[in-house]
Specification:
By secondary structure, the chain is α+β, with helices and mostly antiparallel strands. It is about 50% helix and about 5% strand.
Amino acid sequence: MSAHISNVRPKADKVLTLIADYAKNYSVKSENAYDTARYCLMDTLGCGFEALEYPACTKLLGPIVKGTVVPNGARVPGTQFQLDPVQAAFNIGAMIRWLDFNDTWLAAEWGHPSDNLGGILATADWLSRNGKPLKVKDVLTAMIKAHEIQGVLALENSFNRVGLDHVALVKVASTAVVSSLLDLNQDETINAVSQAWVDGQSLRTYRHAPNTGSRKSWAAGDATARAVRLALITQTGEMGYPSVLTARGWGFYDVLFKGKPFRFQRPFGSYVMENILFKISFPAEFHAQTAAECAMQLHPLVKDRIQDIRKIKIRTHQAAMRIIDKKGPLNNPADRDHCIQYMVAVPFIFGRLTAGDYEDAVAKDPRIDALRAKIVCVEDKKFTRDYHAPDKRSIANALTVEFKDGTKLEEVVCEYPIGHKRRRKEGMPLLVEKFKTNLARRFPVKQSQTILHLCQDQKRLENTPVHEFVDLMVI
């Protein structure tokens, strides 16, 4: 009796079905989620506008072939570019992420869910210009869902532990919500999401010494653009791969996740957007935000005694120890904004921490590396537990300064950064001020005020056609 291979297609993996069903059918009811998404939209666009001041970012923007213009294509806010939705998604995504200043989600996996806005806004704007009456509320809904898909997958599943970068989750989340914007049906959405998983996923090489580099600033743009491409490929009727995760030997779990299936802490809803972490004060890797706040508090006490410091101890959590505890040379801005010692030394010395402080002109100050060499990180197990606790999700750091004469300053502790949900009342007015500053970098006063006033009016913003909203941000 001869053996034969069955050609029967397997049933779609449950995770694919869950993602597709949520993206396609879930109705978001939370006013809190929509209100937070509006702030997130403002902040994310503002981060992109600030990035346009940096030639290292702008050299990557525009069409793939110089001079190409796409009639009725998606516009890139803050620029004159009008592009196909795939390249527009890359442009917007790269701008958003360039300065490491957009929102953050911290769990077993880390990431920046607003990275998905690249694919969402480019697709929605393109569709809105070509006969599909999409409103900004549709963009906010897609943002809430992309945040949720990326964030819930990140809660219990550590991609960094197997050497993979979190932008894999951007690609998956963007693919799901862009498929919904394109009106793909349930099966087509499953096919598109399967394509995102079957792609080879990014290594974290570019985030860690000795290879830390600027790809970490455009990797999410690449991921969200790839998502748009995969959704458009699927729209042609291209098949999917239903057991892409679970296939024995060849599926994602066996090949890239050490044979372990994904775990879920909670069902998809609107939890992630409601609890998202905003970077308000500092363009810095989020695990260092509270350390930078502590350093700013200590600045008046140490600014005239920098040479007298013997040691600075940072009591921190395990994730910070893994990602941003760095010794030795820092080769570029991408290296510096992922070094907790650098992000403490600069505010100690200068009383500030801005995007410009990662550039060579500031980094060459010899006091920075001299102070870095005196900073020691130690893990506090309670900080690590509270970091993972669903009811806390703290990102605590504590700084103790010891001087050469043996005296010490009282330890300064900060458990929750100003962008945390527990500090929304304090943080949101500052987030709006950050947006105002970023608008002023790019637009004349009248244009800035028009954009700001619309963004501060929830109902009017939600009812604005997407292309009309984007047109307000064209230069």
